[in-house]
TrEMBL record:
This is Helix-turn-helix domain-containing protein. SUPFAM superfamilies: Winged helix' DNA-binding domain.
Amino acid sequence: MTEEEDQPRVHGPRDALPEHEVRSALLALLDEAGTVTATQAAARLGYSSGLCSFHLRQLARYGRIEEAPRGGGGRGGARPWRLRTAPEAAEHEEPEGFGELARGLEDESYQRWLASRDAAPEEWRRDEAFSEVVYLTPEEMTAVAEAVRSALEPYRSREADSGARPVGARPVAVVSRVFPLLPGAG
């Protein structure tokens, strides 16, 4: 990684970085703990340190978190992260290839959920996965996507404001893909 690629890049609107189970859990952990390294986050959240490291870097690139001062001085070692104290608003373009990677991680998270669902507390053992094929115009397709975003809007502030979360609330992945089925594909 070059020096330039390693620097945090502040990006725009808070919904510019797609919601993701791991990122939500990391933000909640940072809100609670103040600073964490990828290794500490992995131990607390039950994910791999590589997965936590990737999502911590993505959160930094989008201006949600920043590197915290390292204790003990010197280079190398664990990289601690903290929530940004004053996020800046700027326009952004999604990094090349990020959408494909995010979808892969969403799929991986869902497969992990399916494999471990029986170990979850009883009230969390179900999910609301569904799939529908409907016939829409391009305008209607856009309206459906906007309706999903609008339905989630009342809950978005809970990510940054842990005091707004009801007792028992946990990070929940909501994945929506609205796309046309092209003739002759598949």
